[in-house]
Recover the amino acids of this structure.
């Protein structure tokens, strides 16, 4: 039985796969950029281990032995679910495996923006750190005393909330499900208007796409910070850039973008009050170890005809 990982795996990740993979499972690893090699591996693949490169209907059609698309992570918006259903290919994800890592990265982005780390780091390396732009220094602040609004209240924000509260922040959240008795829950409108920091933790769907458009961004408090470790499509990126350039928002911390990889010339990347990362909030050795445990267990279940863990469709 063969599983195919479509990802640029680091040496450490490859070694972890070799240690964890069962003897009966062949694991092929192909970089996302190696289109020809990927096409050659597809025909006899039973399980596709999917990270970020979109899984298209053509890919699924080219894999007649495919039984499962296993998402390494949670979001399945990069998988053609209709094509999977029409060919009886199961799709599963792995909620919870990366929650700790994403929560920590979210906090890191908040602190990075509030303390202007991406502005001060290169300035200091160039020998100019002791004479920064006074306007940039006026934008520095602490988490303590601020209101942090968490949009969505799944496992990641639930891990994050007590950390922020321990640091002295007031935490509020908006979620579809009513969490009876939790006084921190408010509606989205109130959250946006009250929060000094708004952090996004919801999936990208037809209903949430560009939820934070120009109108929503305009409702945020002057000087507020937007953090996004969920999906880039939740935010109208040009509108966010405009709000930052005009000074209506105080900063942004972004691990995800509307288009990935983000283009080198994107104006967001030139702003000193923006901290960015290349969609790796989830990526730690600990996350990968947990993820491979779930993935290889689902490979076994495919082999043995048992119900899958965390099946999406």
């Amino acid at each position: 039985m063969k599983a195919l990982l479509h990802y640029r795996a680091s040496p450490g990740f490859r070694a972890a796969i070799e240690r964890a993979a069962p003897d009966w499972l062949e694991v092929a690893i192909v970089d996302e950029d190696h289109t020809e090699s990927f096409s050659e591996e597809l025909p006899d693949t039973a399980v596709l281990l999917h990270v970020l490169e979109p899984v298209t209907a053509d890919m699924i059609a080219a894999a007649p032995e495919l039984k499962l698309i296993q998402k390494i992570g949670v979001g399945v918006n990069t998988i053609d679910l209709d094509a999977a259903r029409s060919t009886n290919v199961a799709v599963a994800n792995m909620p919870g495996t990366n929650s700790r890592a994403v929560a920590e990265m979210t906090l890191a982005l908040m602190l990075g923006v509030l303390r202007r780390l991406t502005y001060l780091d290169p300035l200091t390396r160039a020998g100019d750190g002791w004479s920064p732009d006074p306007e940039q220094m006026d934008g520095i602040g602490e988490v303590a005393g601020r209101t942090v609004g968490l949009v969505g209240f799944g496992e990641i924000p639930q891990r994050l909330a007590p950390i922020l509260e321990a640091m002295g922040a007031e935490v509020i959240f908006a979620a579809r499900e009513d969490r009876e008795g939790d006084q921190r829950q408010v509606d989205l409108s109130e959250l946006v208007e009250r929060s000094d920091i708004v952090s996004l933790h919801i999936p990208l769907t037809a209903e949430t796409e560009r939820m934070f458009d120009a109108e929503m961004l305009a409702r945020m408090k002057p000087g507020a910070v937007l953090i996004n470790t969920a999906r880039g499509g939740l935010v109208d990126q040009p509108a966010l850039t405009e709000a930052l350039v005009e000074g209506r928002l105080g900063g942004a911390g972004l691990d995800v973008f509307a288009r990935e990889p983000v283009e080198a010339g994107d104006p967001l990347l030139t702003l000193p009050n923006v901290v960015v990362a290349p969609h790796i909030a989830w990526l730690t050795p600990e996350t990968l170890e947990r993820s491979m445990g779930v993935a290889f267990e689902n490979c076994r279940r495919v082999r043995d005809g048992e119900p899958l863990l965390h099946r999406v469709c």
